[in-house]
Protein backbone atom coordinates (compact mmCIF):
# COMPACT_ATOMS: atom_id res chain seq x y z
CA UNK A 1 0.00 0.00 0.00
CA UNK A 2 1.18 3.49 -0.79
CA UNK A 3 2.89 5.13 2.18
CA UNK A 4 4.01 1.93 3.91
CA UNK A 5 7.63 2.30 2.81
CA UNK A 6 7.82 5.93 3.92
CA UNK A 7 6.32 4.95 7.27
CA UNK A 8 9.25 2.57 7.80
CA UNK A 9 11.62 5.52 7.42
CA UNK A 10 9.67 7.50 10.01
CA UNK A 11 9.78 4.58 12.46
CA UNK A 12 13.53 4.24 11.89
CA UNK A 13 14.03 7.96 12.57
CA UNK A 14 11.96 7.76 15.78
CA UNK A 15 13.91 4.71 16.93
CA UNK A 16 17.21 6.50 16.35
CA UNK A 17 15.99 9.57 18.23
CA UNK A 18 14.73 7.52 21.18
CA UNK A 19 17.94 5.48 21.48
CA UNK A 20 20.09 8.61 21.47
CA UNK A 21 17.89 10.29 24.06
CA UNK A 22 18.10 7.19 26.23
CA UNK A 23 21.90 7.28 26.07
CA UNK A 24 21.89 10.95 27.12
CA UNK A 25 19.46 10.28 30.00
CA UNK A 26 21.51 7.32 31.22
CA UNK A 27 24.64 9.48 31.22
CA UNK A 28 22.89 12.21 33.20
CA UNK A 29 21.58 9.72 35.75
CA UNK A 30 25.04 8.24 36.22
CA UNK A 31 26.44 11.70 36.86
CA UNK A 32 28.45 11.78 33.66
CA UNK A 33 29.62 15.12 32.33
CA UNK A 34 30.53 14.05 28.83
CA UNK A 35 28.89 15.45 25.77
CA UNK A 36 27.26 12.38 24.26
CA UNK A 37 27.79 11.90 20.54
CA UNK A 38 24.62 10.67 18.93
CA UNK A 39 24.71 7.45 16.94
CA UNK A 40 23.47 6.79 13.45
CA UNK A 41 22.28 3.40 12.20
CA UNK A 42 23.15 2.25 8.69
CA UNK A 43 21.59 4.39 5.98
CA UNK A 44 18.63 2.61 4.33
CA UNK A 45 19.68 3.29 0.77
CA UNK A 46 17.43 0.68 -0.86
CA UNK A 47 14.39 1.79 1.14
CA UNK A 48 14.99 5.44 0.23
CA UNK A 49 15.28 4.55 -3.44
CA UNK A 50 12.04 2.57 -3.28
CA UNK A 51 10.25 5.55 -1.71
CA UNK A 52 11.54 7.80 -4.50
CA UNK A 53 10.34 5.28 -7.08
CA UNK A 54 6.93 5.26 -5.42
CA UNK A 55 6.80 9.07 -5.46
CA UNK A 56 7.57 9.04 -9.17
CA UNK A 57 4.82 6.48 -9.79
CA UNK A 58 2.33 8.59 -7.81
CA UNK A 59 3.32 11.66 -9.79
CA UNK A 60 2.62 9.88 -13.08
CA UNK A 61 -0.70 8.63 -11.71
CA UNK A 62 -1.67 12.16 -10.69
CA UNK A 63 -0.77 13.52 -14.11
CA UNK A 64 -2.84 10.81 -15.78
CA UNK A 65 -5.89 11.56 -13.63
CA UNK A 66 -5.53 15.29 -14.17
CA UNK A 67 -4.98 15.21 -17.92
CA UNK A 68 -7.20 12.28 -18.85
CA UNK A 69 -10.05 12.65 -16.42
CA UNK A 70 -12.53 13.00 -19.25
CA UNK A 71 -11.15 10.31 -21.56
CA UNK A 72 -13.20 7.31 -22.55
CA UNK A 73 -11.04 5.12 -20.31
CA UNK A 74 -12.44 6.93 -17.29
CA UNK A 75 -15.86 7.77 -18.72
CA UNK A 76 -17.50 4.99 -16.71
CA UNK A 77 -16.34 6.60 -13.46
CA UNK A 78 -18.14 9.42 -11.74
CA UNK A 79 -16.32 12.75 -11.96
CA UNK A 80 -16.29 13.01 -8.16
CA UNK A 81 -14.58 9.64 -7.90
CA UNK A 82 -11.84 10.76 -10.32
CA UNK A 83 -11.31 13.96 -8.34
CA UNK A 84 -11.13 11.97 -5.13
CA UNK A 85 -8.54 9.61 -6.63
CA UNK A 86 -6.50 12.57 -7.82
CA UNK A 87 -6.63 14.24 -4.39
CA UNK A 88 -5.66 11.05 -2.51
CA UNK A 89 -2.79 10.44 -4.96
CA UNK A 90 -1.43 13.93 -4.30
CA UNK A 91 -1.71 13.42 -0.54
CA UNK A 92 0.19 10.13 -0.73
CA UNK A 93 2.92 11.73 -2.82
CA UNK A 94 3.33 14.69 -0.47
CA UNK A 95 3.32 12.45 2.61
CA UNK A 96 6.09 10.31 1.12
CA UNK A 97 8.16 13.43 0.48
CA UNK A 98 7.66 14.73 4.02
CA UNK A 99 8.58 11.37 5.56
CA UNK A 100 11.72 11.17 3.43
CA UNK A 101 12.73 14.74 4.32
CA UNK A 102 12.16 14.04 8.04
CA UNK A 103 14.44 10.99 7.84
CA UNK A 104 17.15 12.93 6.03
CA UNK A 105 16.82 15.95 8.36
CA UNK A 106 17.33 13.85 11.50
CA UNK A 107 20.48 12.27 10.10
CA UNK A 108 21.79 15.65 8.90
CA UNK A 109 21.26 17.16 12.37
CA UNK A 110 23.23 14.32 13.97
CA UNK A 111 26.04 14.77 11.45
CA UNK A 112 26.12 18.50 12.23
CA UNK A 113 26.49 17.71 15.93
CA UNK A 114 29.28 15.23 15.21
CA UNK A 115 31.12 17.73 13.03
CA UNK A 116 31.00 20.45 15.68
CA UNK A 117 32.11 18.12 18.48
CA UNK A 118 34.87 16.21 16.71
CA UNK A 119 35.44 17.90 13.37
CA UNK A 120 34.21 14.68 11.76
CA UNK A 121 36.99 12.45 13.13
CA UNK A 122 36.83 9.65 15.65
CA UNK A 123 33.06 9.71 15.63
CA UNK A 124 30.71 7.07 16.96
CA UNK A 125 28.23 6.70 14.13
CA UNK A 126 27.67 3.00 13.85
CA UNK A 127 27.18 1.13 17.15
CA UNK A 128 29.16 -2.08 17.30
CA UNK A 129 31.39 -1.15 14.38
CA UNK A 130 34.85 0.02 15.39
CA UNK A 131 36.56 -0.62 12.07
CA UNK A 132 34.93 2.07 9.95
CA UNK A 133 32.45 4.49 11.47
CA UNK A 134 31.58 5.88 8.06
CA UNK A 135 29.99 2.54 7.09
CA UNK A 136 26.79 3.89 8.61
CA UNK A 137 26.69 6.79 6.15
CA UNK A 138 25.61 7.00 2.57
CA UNK A 139 28.09 8.33 0.00
CA UNK A 140 26.41 11.74 0.01
CA UNK A 141 26.41 11.87 3.82
CA UNK A 142 30.14 11.12 3.88
CA UNK A 143 30.77 13.96 1.44
CA UNK A 144 28.52 16.28 3.46
CA UNK A 145 30.27 15.45 6.76
CA UNK A 146 33.71 15.91 5.18
CA UNK A 147 32.93 19.27 3.57
CA UNK A 148 31.01 20.59 6.60
CA UNK A 149 33.90 19.61 8.90
CA UNK A 150 36.32 21.42 6.60
CA UNK A 151 34.19 24.56 6.84
CA UNK A 152 34.22 24.36 10.64
CA UNK A 153 38.01 23.86 10.69
CA UNK A 154 38.45 26.84 8.40
CA UNK A 155 36.21 28.94 10.63
CA UNK A 156 38.12 27.95 13.77
CA UNK A 157 41.47 28.74 12.16
CA UNK A 158 40.39 32.22 11.09
CA UNK A 159 39.82 35.31 13.22
CA UNK A 160 37.99 33.26 15.86
CA UNK A 161 40.88 31.05 16.98
CA UNK A 162 40.67 32.34 20.57
CA UNK A 163 37.02 31.32 20.88
CA UNK A 164 35.98 27.70 21.48
CA UNK A 165 33.10 27.57 18.99
CA UNK A 166 32.44 23.91 19.77
CA UNK A 167 32.05 24.50 23.51
CA UNK A 168 28.79 24.22 25.39
CA UNK A 169 26.30 27.04 24.88
CA UNK A 170 25.22 26.81 28.53
CA UNK A 171 27.20 28.98 30.96
CA UNK A 172 29.11 26.97 33.60
CA UNK A 173 27.61 26.86 37.09
CA UNK A 174 31.09 26.63 38.65
CA UNK A 175 34.42 28.03 37.52
CA UNK A 176 36.35 25.10 39.06
CA UNK A 177 35.08 21.51 38.97
CA UNK A 178 36.14 18.03 40.11
CA UNK A 179 36.89 15.63 37.27
CA UNK A 180 37.80 11.97 37.06
CA UNK A 181 40.12 10.67 34.33
CA UNK A 182 38.40 7.96 32.27
CA UNK A 183 41.40 7.07 30.11
CA UNK A 184 45.08 8.01 29.95
CA UNK A 185 45.79 11.23 28.05
CA UNK A 186 49.31 12.16 29.14
CA UNK A 187 50.27 15.63 30.30
CA UNK A 188 48.22 18.72 29.53
CA UNK A 189 49.35 22.30 30.05
CA UNK A 190 46.93 24.79 31.62
CA UNK A 191 47.23 28.30 32.98
CA UNK A 192 47.53 26.85 36.50
CA UNK A 193 50.15 24.23 35.72
CA UNK A 194 50.64 20.80 34.20
CA UNK A 195 48.33 17.85 34.86
CA UNK A 196 49.24 14.25 34.17
CA UNK A 197 46.00 12.54 33.18
CA UNK A 198 46.22 8.96 34.44
CA UNK A 199 43.13 6.75 34.42
CA UNK A 200 41.01 6.87 37.62
CA UNK A 201 42.87 9.90 39.00
CA UNK A 202 40.91 13.01 40.07
CA UNK A 203 41.62 16.73 39.77
CA UNK A 204 40.08 20.04 40.81
CA UNK A 205 40.53 22.18 37.70
CA UNK A 206 39.07 25.15 35.93
CA UNK A 207 36.21 23.96 33.76
CA UNK A 208 37.19 26.03 30.73
CA UNK A 209 40.61 24.31 30.68
CA UNK A 210 39.19 20.80 30.45
CA UNK A 211 35.90 21.34 28.59
CA UNK A 212 37.35 19.93 25.40
CA UNK A 213 38.69 16.83 27.17
CA UNK A 214 35.27 16.24 28.74
CA UNK A 215 33.65 16.40 25.30
CA UNK A 216 36.18 13.94 23.92
CA UNK A 217 35.50 11.45 26.72
CA UNK A 218 38.86 11.65 28.52
CA UNK A 219 37.40 13.25 31.65
CA UNK A 220 34.13 12.97 33.56
CA UNK A 221 32.69 15.71 35.73
CA UNK A 222 31.94 14.47 39.26
What's the helix and strand layout?
Layout: H1 4-29, H2 45-67, H3 79-118, H4 139-156, E1 176-181, E2 186-190, E3 193-197, E4 202-206, H5 207-215, E5 219-221
Antiparallel strand pairs: 1-4, 1-5, 2-3
Strand-residue proportion: 5-15%
Q: What's the count of strands?
A: 5
Largest beta sheet: what is the strand line-up?
Answer: 4-1-5
Shape, principal axes of CA atoms: elongated
> What is the SS-derived class?
mainly alpha
Compute the separation of the termini in Å.
53 Å
Q: How much helix, percentage-wise, in residues?
A: 40-55%
**Largest sheet composition:** 3 strands, antiparallel
Query: Secondary-structure element order, as H and E?
Result: HHHHEEEEHE
- The helix tally amounts to 5
Averaged pLDDT:
78
Gyration radius from CA atoms, angstroms: 25 Å
Q: Low-confidence parts lasting 5 or more residues at pLDDT below 50?
A: 120-124, 126-132
InterPro entries: GINS_A, GINS_bundle-like_dom_sf, GINS_Psf1, PSF1_C
Subcellular location: Nucleus
Domain DNA replication complex GINS protein PSF1 C-terminal: 174-221
Domain GINS subunit: 76-157
Describe the structure in your own words.
This protein is mainly alpha-helical and 222 residues long. The protein is built from five helices and five strands. The strands form two sheets. A three-stranded antiparallel β-sheet has the order 4-1-5, covered by helices on one side. A two-stranded antiparallel sheet has the order 2-3. Strand 2 and strand 3 form a beta hairpin. The model is unreliable at 120-124 and 126-132 (pLDDT under 50).
